[in-house]
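Fold it.
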Amino acid sequence: MVEMTKGAIQAITKDLKQYSTPSLNDKLYLHFKGWKKIEPCLGEYTGVRALWLEGNGLHELQNLENLQELRCLYIQQNLLQSLEGLDGNLQLDSINASNNSITSIGHLSHLKELHTLQIANNRLTTAEDIAHLKECPSISVIDLQNNRIEDPAVVDTLAAMPNLHVLQLQGNPVTRKVQHYRKTIIARCKGLTYMDDRPVFEDERRTVEA
């Protein structure tokens, strides 16, 4: 089994001409290494602000609590089933968790600086699976496309997000179940400026709300 080790991370930073002192690095490129687990050795990189872990075989998020400066986390294309494990990463601004096996959005309400959540191509199905978003008022960009969401009640959750500006929902069965889908979403989500494949212009909003 391929393991994340202190030596392996040091070899990557050396190859990329980064700092040999772990805490001085603000970016870590640990993607496509075949790692199954985030090991404690990653905790030495306390200054990291952007962390790439995509394309590994991660089943859970762990040993990230020392990365308290982390702003951007790229964990797409893994085997994650939840977003639990980010309790100490209070500065997170953006998370890409697309292409995993996540069945429910949760464990994010403590992230008061989180603005962007990409969670496309997962296993979200019901309105309850995304209800946690109502507890995440800072999120302004949400990518939910190509999940299995089919419950029209998800519109209530989206409408309850006070700062939602960008929504990607295409590729879900719900788009065929909500009557006048685009008009309904735009009418309910007052701050939306971009939806699915195109912007929401003022002319369109005026027509919808007339």
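The helical segments are 6-15, 127-130, 154-159, 174-177, 181-188, 202-209.
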